[in-house]
User: What shape does this take?
Amino acid sequence: MKWIVFWIAVSINYSPCEQSGPFTDEYGIVHDMNTTLSIACFKTERKNMSKEFDTLEEAQAFVDKGIKECGDKSGKNIYIHSTCEKFEIKELKPIGGVQ
Assistant: This one.
């Protein structure tokens, strides 16, 4: 019997905000495209992940390690740059029920 672990990997990457060309700030000064602002933007990426294990004990050990190392923050702390969420272990059954 095999087991499969499902989880979601979340990465938050901070970078300068994209500029679409010259812009005017709140004081009326026109800035060209080469100006770097001190405004930070971020991009969030979520990936559905899975991994197979031969035993339930191996799968549970992987989940326990994942919760400890990358945490289950569920988006509650925006200062975390990456996290893992929603670990789930399921029995991997063969198609047709034949083992």
